[in-house]
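Notes, p. 3: input format for complexes.
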Amino acid sequence: MFRLTDQQQAEFHNDGFVVVDGLIDDDTIHRLRDAFERIFSGRFETGVRPDEVNWQVGESDPAKTRQICNGWKADLTIAGTSLRADIGEACAVLGDWPGARLQVDNSLWKPPGAGSIGMHQDCTYLPWLNPREMISCWIALDDTTADGGTMQLVRGSHRWKPSEELGEFHGPADHQALMRTAAVREGVDDPEIVPVVVKKGGGSFHHGWTWHGSAPNESRLHRRALVVHCISSDACFVPENIAVGTGPIYGRYRYQDSNRMDESFFPVLWSGNGERTRWLDAYA
Ligand SMILES: O=C(O)CCC(=O)C(=O)O
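Output follows (284 residues plus 2-oxoglutaric acid):
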């Protein structure tokens, strides 16, 4: 069971992220790597297709980073990590929320030579959410190196003005361009870019307004990560903004007569009052 120290929480609030060790053990890493093989080759064991399937073997560009969102709905091994209560609790503590829901998980696989992910702020994609807040736990399935396309985070950028500009996510030529424009706007001459360099099983937590992304993988090693993106257990839909960001994908889970988020689609991983979504442990 993972728990953030007071020191790690303070670091997160100061920097907009914190790098940590020991989120998952070696056995879980091996099982998640097998799960990645399954989902990226279209084998969805529950029969459900994930919400965003941006890469499939034999169909997609090998030079692009492989990405599937909400693999937890398709694969029970991914669910076993994405639905963890302790990760939800850590995100709720960092977000100062009564509890944490899973908004989306993200399976990312960047083989040697695969391209960048454009720098962005996660909350730019979420104008359809109130509160517009997200805390994310990024978990490395491989040892990471600075030249191996690991995630890069910009220290202190969670305090910059929110950006509404959605750039290119997969493989932009200059993956830092949008962030550098934002830095100039902010009067920051030399933004401090921190690569997440950890042993497999380690990772980071980042704030929803922290700029981040990653360079191409110039190493000979694969770079795989599972990201658990949490929102407040109190979060609701904002119907007038449903057409923006990822609203067109996740807005399909909104009821016509209510803005509440249903636990079947956005389960509560942890709640201060003990009300974790009841079917989660049996499912995962
Ligand atoms: O792993 C990466 O390169 C970027 C991941 C990302 O965008 C995220 O975790 O929000």
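The chain has seven helices and 14 strands.
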